[in-house]
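Two proteins, back to back. First:
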Amino acid sequence: MNRGAWWATVHRVTKNRMQLILSLSAWLRKQTIFNYDPYIKWPSILGRRTHSLKPWMIALIITAVVLVLAVIIGLPVYFLVFDQKVHYYQTSFQIPSIEYNLDFSVEHSKNRTDLKQKISSEIDEIFQRSSLNRHYIKSHVFNVRPSNNGLKINVLLKFQFTSNNADTIKREADSILHQKLKLNESFLKIDTSLPYLKAMNNVQAEHILNSCCGLGREFPSMERIAYGNVAKKADWPWQASLQVDGIHFCGATLISEVWLLTAAHCFDSYKNPKRWTASFGTTLSPALMRQEVQSVVIHEDYASHKHDDDIALVKLSAPVIFSDEVHRVCLPDATFEALPESKVFVTGWGALKANGPFPNTLREVEVEIISNDICNQIHVYGGAVSSGMICAGFLKGKLDACEGDSGGPLVIPRDGNIWYLIGIVSWGMDCGKENKPGVYTKVTRYRDWIKSKTDI
């Protein structure tokens, strides 16, 4: 800018400011609080009464100005920092350097777990060393399958950013992956048969993230107390309440999107599926989710006058959308045996004492596996515990399942906090009585029956 233009700008700004001052003066002359004329020289008279602002009014004005400035400054900061939302993208890769192994299809197998960890670590490194490292959260590997050239895998990418940056972030993530993989520095290769990055809504993404079985609470993290603990949200996401006409009647366990496993004796009195609903979440009211029941499959050899074959399947009318709070438990192989004194958990909305009311919030209790030999001793159950049953609890009593827990899960942690269903609450004498531990249907004994009905 030359000198003449600079002086012209200064003159214009000065003139504008003078006009602003004169306008403000004219406004002040109209205000009775000041009655001020800038062209009259007021004599300095001590004791003249003035209408100056009081200290509390000044403080109030300053506070108001500070608040306005805070809002003006704070809103952009909020939208830049706190208005960030989670966004998911699905992509697919080829892995020509690794041959498909049947073990890759076995959930939580070591080979599958190691493969998923290797892929996730590779993707994590790519984005953590990129310009998107502040937005990238994690990757999730799913759908490992064979291809004509080694393996093909699907991966879910999780980012966090403000919504108005969605297109920019997607293009940048796409570019980062393309550039990295084209350099042949990674064992991952681009799958050209699919769109590279496909946006996925949060519900679909959460369903995929929680599709792995047995993801629940960490073990151990609870002190033993009488009557158990109130369960925390998402600790036991496979737990369901089976309800008759909207009232809790039995527990059940989610083993797939549409199948629940429970006790056959729950249906001794109410056999019509239309009267039954399944409720999910840690509280009975309000429930996190409710599903209608389509059908009930009771074991063919079950009879109400005996305890054997106390197992049933419940098919839901619509698939459950998995989330952090609702997803399935793992089923063990038929050969699995829980050793005596193993720590296991039973959960449910059963009464806290015999003939007591049902609590509204799910409860949990840690118990121990007791050998069938001990349970069949004369002073315990005198031979009533068959090979298709499991004993769990304590011979000293106190901690036990109770009325209303029937059909609910007995679970054990394996493979690093992956939970497996090993028992179904079946029968016992009273609740927490000495020498009368809980008796559970042994799930591994009926593993083939479950598969024949559900293909799980």
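And the second protein:
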Amino acid sequence: MSDEMEEYKQEFIQEAREYLDVMNQNFIKVEKGDVDAINEIFRMAHTIKGMAGFMGYKNLEELCHKLESAMGKVRDGEIEVTEELIDVMLKAVDAIGEMIDRIEDEDSDSVDVRDIIEALTMFMESREEEEVADRHELKPATANLRVDVYISEDCVMKSVRAALVVEALSEVAEVVGVIPDESDMEKETFDAHFVVYLNAPDASVVEDTISKIAEINRFEVSPVDGETVEMGQAVSEEEAEEKAEGAARAETEAKVEKTEKRVDPGRKDKKKLESIRVNISQLDTIMNLVGELVISKGRLLQIASEYDIPELKEAVAIMDKSITSLQDEIMQIRMVRVERVFSKFPRMVRDLARKLGKKVDFAMEGLETELDRTVLDEISDPLVHLVRNAVDHGIETPEERVAAGKDEVGRIKLAAWREKNNIIIELEDDGRGLDVEKIKQKAIEKGIVSPAEADSMSEDEIKMLIFSPGFSTKDEATEVSGRGVGMDVVKTTVERLGGSVRISSEKGKGTRIRIHLPPTVAIVKSLLVKVANETYAIPISSVVEALYVGEDNWKVIHGNPFLIVRGKLVPAFKLRELFNVRNGRPEREVGIIVEKEGEKYALIADTIAEQQEIVIKPLTGYLAKIKGFSGVTILGDGRVVPILDVSSLLGGDRLA
């Protein structure tokens, strides 16, 4: 395969997967009677079919064609939407996804889908004879608009361009007829001019649609008073789509490069391309280079301050603004909507609920909320664990819910929103809630806590035990949720990203799990603190406040140090002790008040050096196993500074 075709194949794979994500979401909406969702699935199946046909993937093309045909009959009210029909269509979507995976790995779409095609055919067969009869009884249609289109003289394939115009117009209006007829179009026996008759509610939409198509010299849209189009000229929507599909293939094969658009001088400017696809690895490379610039910027700022050179200070100040702007733009480019991950959950919840014999109404909010791509990718699997557990452990069976005085349909809501400097992701259900006593007993049985420790814990602390490795209140593993091996991954992953997890639950009423995340983990603002001669970085997102600590600020209870902050006791962790620093401490220290799971703690350092933006460099190999650090950064003077993992330190990890 040539480099050009390989590039086209990768674009096809990426676009097809995006369409499949949306199709999965829309099938859930179809079950609820959403007409727009039906139309969108139809269009996407049609688009994938056309791309697959050009690329030569005949099995994929056939399956998409069958799915498209079935959706067309659903749209026209010829097939009733049932759970069985949606099941078959979802199997078709899964098979399309499997084919896309094989195309990427093996350049082959050889997946056995005969049973799926047969099932779709069975749903359609009952209407086949009526459909054939209808095709022979097409009635003349009336138009309210006439569109005269003049293709550029240097257009290589005029029939392709004409068919693309008809396809584009069919998406915004009813195509009543085309002159010349289809055979003349295909033979290119017409000149550069052709006419399309439309039944359209708005002429401006028609004008905007044509203005976006390349190689159109000019066009004219004029009203007609209910003009009837001759039968030989009339085209159905299906015919228009088939013509456009063939045209799209021919255009791609011809590799028409000329894209200059010419219209009448009096027409408004056409909309320009506003977005392009960029390889993720290229974005990562640019981000790394920006990180190096940020480090160099810090070094220059330090030199300018040390040597007090006015010209250098001025130049560095200008460069600082430019680098900061570049950094902000790159960070924004890396931001993606949480919808990218959330989109797979409606289908997953539907399948799990049916498998478990439960009824679940799943809702999502805040799909437009944005997160750094890296953060979103990292949080994807933990969210899968949470949603699966909500369906399996949280929501009761319809019989149990009715017996408890609830609606037989359980409700789960997944929401995301921005709150100050954090992104909040919240999962809430109205299921059975957490049984605190059962959690306590299981934790003792598994040796997670001792009986004495369990008795001294608050209810909130006991609830957090569900995030302990291997914890589960179920006596037997299930195919859906296993033995609870996923919940500890949720907490570990979130905390590694600099976030936190909170849980609230009431037995018999439901459970709410709230995740706090930083919007990005690449370049962050941090507080640089000193302990003896060493410097450490604490992400600002973890810091509530900082204050000086004197001898009268301390109180020891049962051997544990507490800091007195405005009359309240805050558990204190001395970094000197955690890092085994043995030389004398200063007379006055600083307390960095941080927050974890809604509780405040104090990290005690010698002094605060400064606040600075830092580039996070991950630890690899053996270093990645050392607790207490989430990475390192390089300061402007070349020093390597460890970045503290606040959650790990507050868990009592001691570094040798």
